[in-house]
Amino acid sequence: MKNVTAINLRKLPLLLLLLSLALAFTTGCTKAAKKKKYMESGKQYMNDDKYREAIIQFSNALQMDPKDPAAHYELAQAYMKAGQWSGGYQELQRTLSLNPENIDAQLDVGNLLLAGRKLADAEEKAKLVQTKAPANADGYVLMANIRAAQRKPDEALELMNHAIQLAPTKASYYVNLAYIQINAKQIPEAEASLKKSFELDPKNPAPLVILGNFYAQQQKFPDAEAEYKKAIDVDKTKYGARVALARFYIATGRKDQAEQVVIDAKKDLPNNPKAVRALGDFYLGVGEGDKAITEFAELYQQHPKDVQLKKTYIELLMARGKRDEAEKLANEILKSSPKDFEAQLVKGRLLLIDRKPKDAITALQTALKSEPENGIAHYYLGVAFNASGDGGRAEAEWREAARLRPDYLEAHRALAVVAAKKNDTDLLDQSAAQIIRLAPIEPQGYIYRAAVELTRKENEQAEGDLKKAIDVAPKNPLGYIKMGDLRLAQRKLPEAEKLFQQALTIDPTQYEAVQGLANLYSAEKQLPKSMAVVKAAVANSPNNPLLYILLAEVQGATKDLPGAEASLQKAIDLRPDAANAYPLLVQLQAARKENDLALQTAEKWTKNVPADPNSYVTLGTLKQVSGDLQSAKALYKKSLEIKPDYPPAANNLAYVMLQTNDNPDVALTLAETARRGMPNSPNAADTLGWAYYQKGVYRNAIDLFEEAAHKNPNNPEYYYHLGLAYQKNHDRDRAKEALEKVLKLNPNFPQAKEVKQALELVKQG
Predict the structure, then answer these.
(1) Any residues with CB less than 8 A from the CB of 41 and at least 6 apart, and which?
(2) Rounded to whole angstroms, what are the CA distances from 716 to 118, 180, 684, 740, 750?
(3) Of 77, 95, 113, which residue is a domain's last?
(4) Predicted TM-score (pTM) above 0.85
(5) Other CB atoms closer than 10 Å to residue 217's CB: what's the count?
């Protein structure tokens, strides 16, 4: 019988080779087919605006062929459409590493760099495109936008016109040209460009919406309304034009007409999720929270399986302070989808509502592990860091949010506030530009830009922007207030008074308007009028703690100290975390020698505003004055835990450590930190001088003590330290003069005995 398992050993290598080739060919065909299927599916998802699904499919295609530049480029587009700019940037870089000749990818990278304000890097990309593809009009558009960002309007216009010469029928170029013309103050030309864009693409409503915004900014309200309506007629299936018209009606005080627009959108576009939710969003936007809750509750009942609707409803519940209901719905989502990112994000935000910033930081950092490039999560993490007192990390998170989501308005608003506090004009300028771009009919962007212009002595431009803030939102008090502040600074008091009063006519409870008018009357020595304005505001808004703090300041100016104390206490009763009230109250109580009461207030401050580093410094100072140096030291350290390098805490801790002979090297480092943070403070100069004195570096100490005494010539302690340093430096005449000055300023100086002893030593030689 023949052995069927017998194999011709001489033919074995050939058989194995043929088999392996066959398997490789089959596997290759399978991978190619799968990649093609994933690519086609991803492109379909892109057409359907389902960008997350497209990201998954293009990623699957790359698993089949990791070195396919086309797949990397498609994935980059999907990331950018989904607002995941960092992922898009990385995929564009991978595309270019595989295919550096991809001009579209080079342009996309350039535009991302421009959006991130990396103008020099963006310019390199634009020049590269112009070199490699001199007939590519998009390269000139990119360079035009870079020049516009650099405030070189003439060059920007020249480049943009050249791009149009290369591609005269591309409608979007005329929109781009219009924006540059607006910034160059070429208003009629910008209008013509927007009309030309629609003429070239009459089925696209976008240019009409932009033209409507343009007319609204020019206060040509009938023309603006006509363009918005025309945009809706061009394509009734689009939601964007309806939103623009509704916002226009709200901005011009026609709430009923705005409501009808969104009602029609909900009825006409039943398959558009944004349109279905439009009425609820409208009620929320105009402050009718109860109606919004009712609308979303009905929608939620009608569409219980619509997870995105549920998430929107959660947002609304949180905005209305209904945290328990919001948490219940978020838990429902997490129960069925434990890794749902947005539900995890909600949990973090709920902890912020509960004023648990440290727990919120942990929760939000956990959420970001699943979506590290989510700009909104980075924004809320910044809010959490800010609430915990870590302003540096808050700013870093907000910058990351703005980088990942350049269209996320809240991130730019947060950065603008940071920039204003830090007097960072470059950051404020960038943030203002983004706010204006994203919200052109809101006043705040123009107000921020005016602040930058005033800092740069560009007074005419600043006035223009403040007028713009009033023009685009005539029913918003902010523009009038900021123009009033400018007139007050210019000592044009009648104009300032009129502007503040206009703001109060719009909103009688507007704090900044009340503050401006009160300051104006105080500057004119009309304290009764100042008091009347603040009291009227308190009557209109009896639960606003800021107004009671302002009332206390006016009462203090009129020497009504019991009244001031009562007002500050009222502010704290209304808002236990009203941080601005505590230092004034402590100061008032300490001035009246009510040290125990001041201590109690400071302790209450640390308890109710635990993230405020100044609360621990104030309490520490009171402990230090009472002689409890160990408690003072612990409190200063607590302040530095909350805000490392906080100058007042570093200064005071250094001084106490020097008094108690506790690690002079660390004390010197702390004193140097305080000096860097408070370079003009005589107190910081004295502390650093005392640290040098303890280290035996008397010449440096003398320089600092002299500076402190020059800046505050009535402080005997500075002269005491200066006298001791002169003595150590063998300058007996100056030592004698400084030490005698101590006793002249304060015969009851606490260390008068030591001063007299030092004087005796000086006299003895």
Answers:
(1) 57
(2) 52, 61, 16, 10, 10
(3) 95
(4) no
(5) 18
